[in-house]
Design brief:
This protein has about 280 residues and is α/β, with parallel strands linked by helices. It has 9 helices and 11 strands. The strands form 2 sheets. Strands 3-2-1-4-5-8-9-10-11 form a 9-stranded mixed β-sheet, with helices on both faces. Strands 6-7 form a two-stranded antiparallel ribbon. A hairpin with a 2-residue loop joins strand 6 and strand 7. The chain binds 3-hydroxy-5-(hydroxymethyl)-2-methylisonicotinaldehyde. The site of 3-hydroxy-5-(hydroxymethyl)-2-methylisonicotinaldehyde (PXL) has 15 residues, from strand 1 and helix 7.
């Protein structure tokens, strides 16, 4: 069988284990070729007090043009951190162009956390992101992003699953069939991943909450889901696998006192994914 490939439209960050730096090894471990389409180049991610940020927007059109010229196709496209409003337009064009052989588009609308948007995120980018989401088959927002995309007020207290379903239904109407709302704090000890399917309603995958939130967790989850789904697994099994892997990584990081913003030590458990692809 021909090897599959995923385009990873995301930033390249040197230190801090996020985006392409963790997504490429995750999908590669699942025997899928990772093709990086950089959106920005950073020395560390934006949760560090200082970082070098090189917006790749002016280079992206020429970069992508060669894939058009070579008539390259992708079995899946996963988009993540976007660095400017114009870039969202470029990515929209990318999704409109590379449809041949494509099984799905996964959009991780990396916009913010804890009810706040990231420092690099402008209101214009928010509007554009709302449009981009319509091209997704699978969407992986956290609660902040789900609220922003549906113009809902973010609340610290837990939303009911019925409320979440209503928000997902709205978002799904002109867009993604599957929406996975990640990392919902149910109580001090547990997190829920809310898995919405336009045709089948919702399912929940629970995980024990260990330690604080770690940078890049959403990126690892998206990569595991994209890889698993491309390898023929159900969304539910893919989310379960992602949650298991993340829990293992967090436990390792806690035991070894790795700071939260250093990300997940995913290198330690890539072999779990290799087994999954066999
Ligand atoms: O993991 C999300 C992410 C991706 N890329 C960059 C980030 C963040 C979150 O802070 O700063 C550059």
């Amino acid at each position: 069988m021909a090897q599959k490939k995923i385009a990873l439209v995301n930033d390249i960050t040197g230190f801090g284990r996020c985006s392409t730096a963790v997504m490429a090894p995750v999908v590669s471990a699942m025997k899928i070729q990772a093709v990086a389409v950089p959106t920005a180049i950073l020395s560390t991610h934006t949760q560090f007090p200082v970082y070098y940020f090189d917006d790749y927007t002016p280079k992206m059109r020429d970069y992508i043009q060669t894939y058009k010229d070579l008539d390259i196709s992708f079995d899946a496209i996963a988009t993540g951190f976007l660095g400017s409003a114009e870039q969202v337009d470029i990515v929209t064009d990318f999704l409109q162009t590379f449809t041949r052989n494509r099984q799905f588009v996964l959009v991780d609308p990396v916009m913010g956390d804890y009810g706040k948007l990231y420092k690099t995120y402008t209101p214009k980018m928010c509007d554009k992101m709302k449009n981009l989401v319509r091209y997704a088959d699978i969407l992986t927002p956290n609660l902040t992003e789900l609220c922003t995309l549906t113009d809902s007020v973010y609340r610290e207290d837990l939303l009911s699953f019925d409320e979440l379903e209503k928000m997902c239904r709205t978002l799904s109407q002109n867009g993604p069939k599957n929406i996975i709302v990640t990392g919902l704090a149910l109580n001090k000890k547990q997190l829920a991943n809310f898995i919405y399917d336009r045709d089948e309603g919702y399912q929940i995958v629970m995980v024990d909450k260990i330690g604080g939130d770690r940078s890049g967790t959403g990126d690892v989850i998206s990569a595991v889901i994209a890889g698993m789904v491309l390898n023929g697994h159900t969304i539910y099994d893919s989310v379960k696998k992602a949650a298991e892997l993340v829990s293992k990584c967090i436990r390792y990081c806690e035991e070894n006192q790795v700071p939260n913003h250093y990300g997940l030590c995913v290198e330690m458990y890539l072999e779990d994914l290799i087994k999954e692809a066999e």
